[in-house]
Write a structure and sequence with these properties.
By secondary structure, the protein is mainly alpha-helical. It has five helices and no strands. The protein has two domains: 4-66; 84-156, no CATH class. Helix 4 crosses helix 5. The longest helix has 27 residues, at 3-29. 17% of the residues are buried.
C-alpha cells in the first residue's frame, strides 16, 4: 500500500475539519456587531477574515485530498505511537498555567508552563530531558518570553492580565 493511499482518508478528514471549523467561526462571527470603529473596521472583521481564510484552506486541502492526496508528502519522522509520558509533561504545563495564573500571575505561570512543556517536547524527540539546571534555564526562557508579552498587553494595549504584584510589572 503506498503512502498516498494509506493517508488519503486522514487527508480528507483534515480538509473537511478545517472547512467545518471555518464554517463554525463564520457562524459565530455573524453575531458580532458590524459597527465600524474609528479605525474603519469593526470587531467582526478579523473573525470573518480568519473564518474565510480557514474555509479556503480547508476547501483546498479537501480538493487536493480528493484528487489523489497531498503532493510531495514526506514520510513522517515521528514514532508509530504517541508518547504518553511526553504528553503528560506538556499537559501538566498547560494545566499548571491555567490553575496558577490568578495566584502566581501571568508571567510566572507562563514561565512554569514553558519549562514543563519544553521538557515534554524534549522527551518526545527522544532527547535528554535535563536536570535541575535545564529546568531553570527553561523557566528563565519562559520568563523572558512571558514578561514582554505581559508588558505589551498590560502597558501598551491596556488589557488586564493577572499579575503577581499590584505594581503591574510582574
Amino acid at each position: 500500500m503506498s503512502h498516498s493511499s494509506r493517508s488519503r482518508p486522514a487527508q480528507v478528514l483534515i480538509g473537511a475539519a478545517a472547512l467545518a471549523i471555518g464554517g463554525l467561526l463564520a457562524w459565530g462571527a455573524k453575531d458580532l456587531p458590524a459597527a465600524i470603529g474609528y479605525s474603519g473596521v469593526g470587531p467582526a472583521v478579523l473573525p470573518w477574515f480568519i473564518a474565510g481564510a480557514l474555509a479556503v484552506c480547508g476547501a483546498l486541502l479537501l480538493w487536493q485530498a480528493l484528487r489523489g492526496g497531498y503532493r510531495a508528502l514526506e514520510e513522517g519522522a515521528g514514532a508509530e505511537r504517541g508518547d504518553w509520558h511526553a504528553l503528560a509533561w506538556v499537559a501538566a504545563g498547560i494545566l499548571a498555567n491555567a490553575s496558577l495564573i490568578n495566584r502566581a500571575g501571568f508571567v510566572l505561570s507562563c514561565a512554569l508552563c514553558v519549562a514543563l512543556a519544553v521538557r515534554g517536547l524534549r522527551i518526545a524527540e527522544a532527547k535528554p530531558a535535563g536536570g535541575p539546571r535545564q529546568v531553570l534555564i527553561d523557566a528563565v526562557t519562559g520568563f523572558l518570553i512571558a514578561a514582554p508579552a505581559f508588558w505589551l498587553f498590560t502597558k501598551v494595549l491596556a488589557i488586564n492580565l493577572p499579575g503577581l504584584t499590584a505594581t503591574g510589572w510582574i
